[in-house]
Amino acid sequence: MYVEMRKICKKFGDYEAAKSIDFGIEKGKMAALLGPSGSGKTTILRILAGLEKQDSGDVIIEGRVVNDIPASKRGIGFVFQNYALFRYMTVYDNIAFGLKVQKADKHQMKERVNEMISLIGLEGLEKRYPDQLSGGQRQRVAFARAIVPNPQLLLLDEPFAAIDAKVRKELRAWLKEMIEKVGITSIFVTHDQDEAVELADDIIIINEGNLEQMGSPVSIYKHPETPFVAHFIGTSNTLDNLSGFKGFEGIEAGKKVIIRPEFVEVFKNDNQRFKNLMDATEEGIIKKIAFRGSYLELTMLVNGVLLTTTRSLERRSVSVGEKMRVLLHRVYLFDDTNAEMRAEIYKNELLKGVDIEML
Amino acid sequence: MKKERLKKQHSIIPGRGMTLGITITMLSLFILIPLVSAMLYSFRMSWKDFTELITRPNVTQAFATSIWCSLIAAVINCIFGTILAWVLVRYEFPGKRLMDAMIELPFALPTAVAGITLTKMYSDNGFLGRALERVGIRVSYTRLGIIIAMVFIGIPFVVRAVQPILEKLPAAHEEAALMLGASRFTTFRKVIFPEIMPALLSGFGLALARGIGEYGSVIYISGNSEKNGTQVVSYIIMSKLNSGNVDYEGAAAIALVLLILSFLMLFLINMIQHFAARRTNA
Questions:
Q1: Positive or negative CA dihedral for B58, B59, B64, B67?
Q2: Where do the structural domains in chain A lie, given as residue ranges?
Q3: Fold of A3-226
């Protein structure tokens, strides 16, 4: 492991921002600390950087415990949420700052800074001040400033939070490309799951100071280990029980159920693809149809509960009030009285081993 | 056509005409008219008398004393005031609120009270004066005394100018410098100082202006001796008005020169501020 946090604990008064956080990241990987606001993810990043001191536990970078090394000596690049560019310095001086304080050779410094400016594509704007740049340009400068002294680790705190939605997508792709080009190990904090899924090799999910799950985006999505993760990643409905649903009679009493839109199939009575599975379906009424651009979102009333699912625009059209067949093929189960319990998958018993993905 | 456009502008932010009217009236009544009358009084003198009066050794010396002492005091206030503002903004300690409230005391205290207290404290038998005397430093009845009095009355200007800027300064700026390997000192010099510079300049200007015109707190501690060069301009002016034959014209002439010098200095400070601001907000 290149970067490691071992049993990191941190309290601010009564508020526990980190409760024994343990994780490691391999060299060259990009990891996301994902969680709702106030979950403690930024605190964890700041402890790594040395901007916050942990109450207990070790921070290890490249096999060395760095607990007592001050932030300025850890050799970490940091991109702040609002970039924190120096307002009274030009783009050039901002980027050169890290080299200037190291008293780097003037000639080499100039070369390196110019190399950075062309890397981020801001040639010709060297003499501008931060106030004269757009949000996206500022972020590029902040990125260049952070990596100019050649840090071995790059930390980014909500790097896209201050940018409007349209530019954000573009910048995400740009940042991913830059980080791959530079080949630097990096960790970023975000509350946006799309951002984490798109950029990160590993996602670390944080909630109330606890590390809920760490893994690749796909494994986190497919195999959520805790109720929180099952909830937080993707969209989902939570139900107290599934009484009345065929094929789910075996669920123990007291367990709660999480249903994702993709666990629900909705089709008309004369559907050919699912005709062998009609026994496993329930009757549902379309309560609401929302147009989502490339698909429809249907809200179905089934056995007295509301389920959400998506429907391709390529399928036959449907209308509100129409009776449809609803196939719930699996759900996540969890026990919210027992926090240690992991979320598990429960498949519809009536499918009798038919794999819905094969249809 | 033009009138119509003007009228439209009025309606966007209401009350323009009224507030502007009040402003000009007040400005005239309280500032412009007294200043102009000072000028008019001095114009009663002939040019020859005027130059003769202004170039008298005790007058030029008083100008030098007033300007130098208030400049030095303003510089000291900038350093000390910035540290004070820093402590008040950045650290938590018991009695912080009390200390914050104490900053304005030099404004509230009658300047004569301040002057007498300072004089007593720093005189040969005052407890500070005695201690300093032993190491060979005399404060009361010297220019050093004048500077101390001016520091005392000028400190609130700098603290109150710098404090809000420091409060608003996001911690991320300092942290960014720190992450890039900058020392605490470099961070202050390169990152924090440019941010507080405009506020510091206006604090400097106000403290300077106050110092140049100060009377009450200075005259007791200075001793007003021509021989020691401890007469300040305001003392010269007052003595012209207090002596047996009141010399209004002479007092007004000196006041006019003081006015012009103060204005030039404040204008210069404003210009520096203006250019510093333009650099980033173009």
A1: positive
A2: 3-226, 235-358
A3: Rossmann fold (3.40.50)
* Amino acid identity at B108: A
- Give DSSP secondary structure letters for A192-237: -HHHHHHH-SEEEEEETTEEEEEE-HHHHHHS--SHHHHHHSS--E
Burial class (CB in 10 A: 0-12, 13-18, 19+), A106: exposed
Side-chain half-sphere CA neighbours of A81 within 13 A:
12
The token pair at B197 is 């510079």
Q: What average pLDDT does this structure show over B25-30?
A: 91
CA distance A120 to chain B (A): 19
Please tell me the predicted confidence (pLDDT) of residue A334: 81
pLDDT higher than 80, residue A193? yes
| Residue of chain B whose Cα is closest to the Cα of A83 | B172
Which residue in A75, A81, A101 is closest to B186 by CB distance?
A: A101
In this predicted structure, the answer to whether residue B10 has a pLDDT above a threshold of 90 is no
ipTM greater than 0.95: no
Q: What is the pLDDT of residue B281?
A: 55
Q: What is the three-class DSSP state of A256?
A: strand
A47 touches chain B (CB under 8 A): no
Residues A50-70: tens digit of each pLDDT: 999 999 999 999 989 999 999
Instruction: Please report residues of A whose CB lies closer than 8 A to that of B282.
Output: 129, 132
Mean pLDDT of chain B: 88
- Chain B residues with CB under 8 Å of A132 CB are 282
Does B279 contact A132 at a Cβ distance shorter than 8 Å? no
Closest residue by Cα to residue A28 from A146, A181, A145: A181
In this structure, of A38-42, A87-91, A248-252, the range with the lowest mean pLDDT score is A248-252
Which whole number is the average pLDDT over B53-69?
A: 93
What's the rounded Cα separation, in Å, for the pair A111 and A113?
A: 6
Hey, is the C-beta of A295 within 8 angstroms of any chain B C-beta? Answer: no
Q: Specify the domain boundaries for CATH 1.10.3720.10 within chain B.
A: 46-281
CB contact under 8 A, A71 and B175: yes
Say which of A78, A85, A88 has its CB closest to residue B179: A78
CATH (residue range A235-358):
2.40.50.100
- How many Å lie between the alpha carbon of A200 and the closest alpha carbon of chain B? 23
> Which CATH number is correct for B46-281, 1.10.3720.10, 3.30.390.50, 1.10.10.10, 3.30.1330.10?
1.10.3720.10
Per-residue confidence band for A250, with pLDDT thresholds at 50, 70 and 90? confident
pLDDT category, B282, cuts 50, 70, 90?
Answer: very low
Q: Could B178 and A51 be called an inter-chain contact, meaning their C-beta atoms sit closer than 8 Å?
A: yes
Contact between A261 and A235 under an 8 Å Cβ cutoff? The reply is yes
Cβ distance A80 to B282 less than 8 Å, yes or no, reads no
Of A109, A42, A49, A57, the C-alpha closest to A75 is: A49
Residues of B with CB under 8 A from a CB of A: 170, 172-173, 175-183, 186, 190-191, 194-195, 279-282
Picking from A51, A52, A58, A46, the residue whose alpha carbon sits closest to that of residue A21 is A58
